[in-house]
């Protein structure tokens, strides 16, 4: 079967930054073996049985070892294989991905997806949809899941139209908007998600991404810089704080030339940070002025005496238990 000019995107998510880091874009010799994208992904790349239960086959191994070798070479948490092949066995399909958070157990071996370049962007936005699966998100029809898509109506003067967020199954001719479901973010004056944490019917992919980020970031260990900053706790396991809490965060520098310097800052959106709150390896933060539902992003950057830097960014959501 002729090669389809594949490109392999090697991606990592490191240091709790909750931002994708593109490690490499490289050609690959991967060749489709069938007209079934799901079979090519599950059997040929991941070495799993061909079904939607993602059961590992004890008698099988990945047929395409090159994709796996490249993942290990670049220490990639997740991998996207771009293809120009038209898969048709399951109907016209533009992408398929492993569900890394299957049955609430994160499985690094499922961190692969295949995306047809013709549906990667545009109204389908298949590329980011499949990457969403690799970060622990689900479709809108998955029960007992809050990190999934959301369907709503929004519009203005000329009437409301159906809208769907990134993880909603596309169907019909609907166009996905450029948002994951998030009740705190609006599109044309309508919230793009619904529900408070833990509520029945919650649709909040943004919360799931914040929680799963540092788990996926641990799928492959990155050699990283010689100087690094580490924490005494895992932010994924201490995501929520209560209004009025006073929290102390401590980091440690290692491997660089001492002494180390630190800068702690806080942001309400993860992009715009305020002034430096501490220059030691410790920050004590008072949440008395924070309101229910606030999400604060705490960033600490460490600097070694020889000029190397490393940083950690993690979110804290204010929520009454």
Helix coverage percent: 10-25%
What shape does the CA trace take? globular
* Poorly predicted runs: none
Structural class of the secondary structure composition?
A: alpha+beta
**Spatial strand sequence of the major β-sheet:** 2-1-3-7-4
> What value does the Rg take, in angstroms?
21 Å
Number of strands: 18
Distance between the termini: 57 Å
How many individual helices?
4
Largest sheet, if any?
5 strands, mixed
Give the overall pLDDT as a whole number: 82
Query: Beta fraction of the residues?
Result: 25-35%
From N to C, what is the helix and strand string? EEHHEEEEEHEEEEHEEEEEEE
Structure, described:
The protein is α+β, with helices and mostly antiparallel strands and 321 residues long. Helix content is 12%, strand content 29%. The protein has a five-stranded mixed beta sheet with strand order 2-1-3-7-4, with helices on both faces. Strands 13-18-17-15 form a four-stranded mixed beta sheet, with no helix packed on it. Strand 17 and strand 18 (309-318) form a beta hairpin. The longest helix has 12 residues, at 205-216. The chain is globular.
Secondary-structure topology with pairs:
Elements: E1 7-12, E2 21-27, H1 37-45, H2 65-73, E3 78-83, E4 95-97, E5 101-102, E6 105-106, E7 112-116, H3 126-134, E8 151-156, E9 159-164, E10 186-187, E11 190-191, H4 205-216, E12 228-231, E13 240-241, E14 246-254, E15 261-267, E16 282-286, E17 295-303, E18 309-318
Parallel strand pairs: 3-7, 13-18
Antiparallel strand pairs: 1-2, 1-3, 4-7, 5-6, 8-9, 10-11, 12-14, 14-16, 15-17, 17-18
